[in-house]
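User: Show me an example of a complex going from sequences to structure tokens.

Assistant: Sure. Here are the input components:
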Amino acid sequence: MSIGYILLITAAILFSIGIAIILARRNLIRIIIGMEIAATGVNINFIGLSLLKNPYLIDPLAHTIVIISILLDGALIGVALAMTLVVYRKFRTLDVDKIRKLRW
Amino acid sequence: MLPYAPWMVWVLPLIVAFTHPIWERISEKLRDWIAVGVAFVSAIFAASMIPDVLNGYTIINGVKYPLPYDWVFAKWIPLPGLEISAGVLIDSLSVFMANVVAWLCSFIFLYSIEYMHGDRGITRYWMLVNFFMGSMELLVMADNLLVMFFGWEGVGFASYALIGYWYLDEKKYWIGPYSPSHCGMKAFVTTRIGDVGLLASIIMIYLYSHTFNFLQLAHNYSWAIQMAREGILSLVLILSLLGPIGKSAQFPLHVWLPEAMAGPTTVSALIHAATMVKAGVYYVARILLVLYPIYISAHNIVAGAFNTFFLVVAWVGAFTAFLAASMGCVSDQIKKVLAYSTISQLGYMFSILGVAGLLMSHQEAFIESYIAGVSHLMSHAIFKALLFLSAGAIGHAIESYMLKDMGGLKKYMPKTFIFMAIGCFALAGIPPFNGFWSKDLILHVLYSENMLALYVLLAVTAILTVFYTFRMFGLAFYGEESEYVKHLIEEGHKPHDPGIYMSLSLAVLSIGALVSGFFIPSLIDLFRNSFMYIGIENEILNELPISSYIKFYISTLINPLIGVTALIIIVGLTPSYMTFITYKWSAKDIIERNVFLRLIWKFLYNRWYINTIYYLIFVDGFKAFCNSIFNNIECNGSGELLKKGYSSFSNIVRRVQTGFLRVNMAYIAWGLIITLIIYLMLTV
């Protein structure tokens, strides 16, 4: 089994774990951690696909995209944590089941 | 030519227009002077192109090019089969127009510094007028129809925004029954009707010729021949005339210009008298230069269509001249009189340029009428700006533009009196002011080319012009002070002459009105290049009576037609002198004694009922139509049914919004999985 497949399987596992955390956990901070894990899975997926195409080349395009993606992750986590802070100040809780303003 | 002059004239004002909010933060004075300064810089760039046009060649980056030179800067849309380039055209007409526009803009901006001082939205004012200046220069410098259309729409927007400049609609800015924002909307909608026609014809011409470029249109004339064979050439040309008719306020789209006076007076002077309304005249002059070579090469095919088109131009212009002049005779507001007079003088230009098109087979007559048209354009731009700015000085002093609020201002405002007098003399065509030379040239050409019907109509219009000019002048400056002025003096607001900047601009324009008429023969030199390019020989240009100064003065002054001019002035001046300057005749008595005159007065005062009819059909009619839809369809059950149906549907759908974050996330995950499954099913 080539290293590309190993990376793809790792990516799938990480992404599933991330989605599972988002779906199952109630704490906002944990949900953000889940998002980050899922994003890591996606990044690894990029590298895996690039290696699948050509195992003997470090594809600069895929790496560039991943670096930009990591950068955006950093920005995203900053915004997400800031929003969490605002949510906490307003609702005095981080339990997403109690924050249910957006409903019919 | 200064480097990049044809670009700088329009790029600089456009850029500066958007930087005024920055300057405003630093200092208000800085903002004002930057707005004025950029206009003067642009004017210097424009003036630097004149020597090149006189020489007939230009040097760009060390390479010598013959004029007219199409300076393509960029391939705008470089698609295969649709290669549209953006560029500027350096030729006589564009340089002439650029100079008229830039110098008038400069002095009117200088005047605005004092006139607009202390107004609330003055940053907006400077942004819009600089934007207007850039768009107008783009319009006149453009080398193809599409770029010209961009400038065309830009000036239309600036005009709309500046007419409605006092958008809070205070009562003192109303024009008759209309508020400023209403007037702006009216101007915008009316000119838009024409612009649609212009755009349609531009596209039609493109479909046949595959180019928008003026020089290419003149050279590859197969498009005109093909259109003429299919019988649509005159239709397409008349369709394109709708744009100029709207922009230059010709009949039947003339109704917007009197209402356009709701804006500040500087705007009226700049946009609605001196420059923007000349865009239509510019278009006709430009299209003449395009159509002339086509006529020479293929006149047996295109002559019929061209004659139809130019006959329409000439008669629309002449009729509008008469129509507007007759309305100007009874108007009750000084700016409205000037607006009617603008429409009327634009009619003169249209008419003579139409005649130029009709006379394409006689080169001398073509050149004479063309020069008459553009010289009247220049004269009118100068003296009408002067008149508007003088009216603005009066308005600045007494805070009103109604003629009934004026009267006897001569002793309070002696300087304004002199400036206004010069403007009135020029408008009325009294020698030696510039209006006399250009208007006389127009009438002279019409007479010597046996266009007698047009000649009589325009001569009668000239009589009316003299009458309404001095009626306005007398009502403003002579006679008793009105109650309003007396009231102002009692309150301590004595009407006074304007300050230094306003006076300076007025003085410069007065000198222009005094001397520019003498330089009409120089216009031949300026246009020599374009005329030779379209195939007129140099000898013919040199032998024309208007090509040398002495011959021009002699043929104008020592000519039987000067008697007609004198007659026009006397017939027009006598009633207005007796009635409104010496007040020996009473206008009220004359009108009240004669039923017939009273009917005419009412007819003219209501603007031939054209405005009323338009409002009846297009405003009130449309409103009634919309109301009937509202009442008969929306309010009788079907609207209710729609509402109920929508609400019961949304009651079902809204249940998916639970408010649980995880449910939303589950939707996303399911969506992902389903998409993946579909994708796999499709590919495997």
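The lines above are the inputs; the final block is the predicted structure for all two components together. Chain A is about 75% helix and 0% strand.
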